[in-house]
Write a structure and sequence with these properties.
Layout (H helix, E strand, L loop, with lengths): L10 E7 L8 H12 L5 E7 L16 H12 L2 E7 L7 H9 L8 E8 L5 H13 L3 E2 L4 E4 L10 H27 L5
Parallel strand pairs: 1-2, 1-3, 3-4, 4-5, 4-6
Length: 191
């Protein structure tokens, strides 16, 4: 059943690949995640790989560039987000922070989930820093995240724990995403 707020239509989710380093594994992690997410009928996925935006300006301009406008329009269309991020030096990459800062209102009152990867911390430090950033942007950070240990003798997401974490993340993302989409339709968010 679809009500006037569109609760019956799938949630539009932007999956943002935050690393742009040469030799990165972020695209592989995003592929692993989206393969699992695509099995659900309640999501429409839009993968936004920041490596596909080489024309982002090195210096923040007074007027948005075409690349910035394309990126922010994709953010505006989304009902929710999943950030795929490595942990670099106990935080997230500068390329991701730059892209996040190109939008502002477009993040408001939408849920954000995290798929992080790294060494023993499984990307936890990157996620904790992102939570602070998205709180400032009036977004709803999900409690549960996916953290992958990708360095060592058996790297890569492979166990049931990782699959359970994806399910928990997606269940929360859909619940919050539908609730906030309905709320924004009834009463525009103001900051």
């Amino acid at each position: 059943m679809q009500d006037r707020e569109g609760a019956g239509r799938p949630l539009d989710v932007a999956v943002i690949v935050g690393s742009t380093r040469e030799g990165r594994i972020g695209a592989d992690v995003a592929r692993w995640f989206t393969e699992r997410a695509a099995k659900r009928g309640d999501l429409l996925l839009d993968v936004i790989d920041l490596a596909d935006y080489p024309d982002f300006p090195a210096v923040y301009p007074a007027t948005p560039t075409d690349a910035m406008a394309r990126f922010t329009s994709r953010i505006a269309r989304a009902d929710g987000f999943v950030i795929v991020t490595p942990e670099y030096n106990r935080s997230f990459p500068a390329s991701l922070k730059q892209a996040i800062d190109y939008a502002y209102d477009e993040w408001h009152a939408k849920p954000v989930g995290y798929v992080a990867y790294g060494f023993d911390s499984r990307g936890l430090y990157a996620v904790e820093h992102l939570r602070c950033v998205f709180t400032e942007l009036h977004a709803m950070s999900l409690r549960d995240s996916v953290g992958l240990h990708l360095v060592g003798e058996s790297p890569g997401p492979s166990d049931e724990r990782d699959d359970r974490a994806v399910t928990a993340l997606l269940d929360q993302l859909v619940w919050w995403g539908l609730a906030l989409r309905e709320a924004r339709a009834r009463r525009p968010y103001t900051s």
